[in-house]
Amino acid sequence: MTNNKQVLVVDDDQAIRELLAEYLSKNNFEVITAHDGQEMDEKLLVHSPDIIILDIMLPGDDGFVLCQRIRQNSNVPIIMLTANSDEMDRILGLEIGADDYIGKPFSPRELLARIKALLRRTNFVKESLKSSEKTRYSSFANWKLDNQQHNLLDENNQTIPLTGADFQLLTLFLDNPNSPISRDQISQALHGRDAFANERGIDVHLSRLRQCLGDDAKAPKIIKTVRGAGYVFIAQVSFDAQ
After folding, report:
1. So where are the chain's domains?
2. What is the CATH number of domain 133-240?
């Protein structure tokens, strides 16, 4: 029985699959691979990977369709492989639930660093929830965040599933109400690094979270933009045991 983290690599390029399988295995990861969506679905029936590396350009269903399908019942971290120059691919990937992206061609070493950073953040959230005295639900406005199930509940207790990135971003705001959160802090929380200049990914994450919460950026009641400082969570927050 191994305790190594398991990575699922989904890419139709056999050379890339073999390269990543060899490189990641040498770095103490258990690697499984799939060349298209059908094989990915088959692997997911018998495996529960800790992270998925998902190429966009695939035969049959592309990476966007597969990402949406995964997100219907799983919050597993997803890193998408994109064309290096295609910013719209990256933005769309984030909008539909990917946690990070890396452009092709890429360095296996950089991908390894992204994988480790994303797994550290995921583990940190899990451990924080286990050890924290914070109770199960964080309540604000007409919403409740279920800190165990990573779901958002509306005023009618209808469940809205969150991606890992959505949950981490919302948790960052809930843990720091009425305090400015900079773009660098958001990028550190989501990607483990400072924000790149004019990084669109942060805007996408914020826009997606605001959309989930029904918060209008022009007349905000939950997340307010503060020019030169970042963003402030202005709704009152309380914590409930049940």
Report:
1. 6-128, 133-240
2. 1.10.10.10
H or E element in which residue 161 lies: strand 159-161
SS3 of residue 112 by DSSP: helix
Q: Of all helices (H) and strands (E), which one includes residue 107?
A: none
CATH architecture under which domain 6-128 falls: 3-Layer(aba) Sandwich (3.40)
Q: Looking at the predicted structure, is the pLDDT value of residue 216 above 80?
A: yes
- In angstroms, the Cα distances linking 172 to 66, 121, 122, 161, 199 are 28, 12, 13, 17, 19
Q: For 73-82, what is each residue's pLDDT tens digit?
A: 888 899 999 8
* Residue that is written with structure tokens 């059908």 in the block: 38
The distance in angstroms from the start CA to the end CA of the chain is 37
CB-hemisphere CA count at 13 Å for 14? 0
Reported pTM: 0.64
Exposed, middle or buried by CB within 10 Å (0-12, 13-18, 19+), for 182? middle
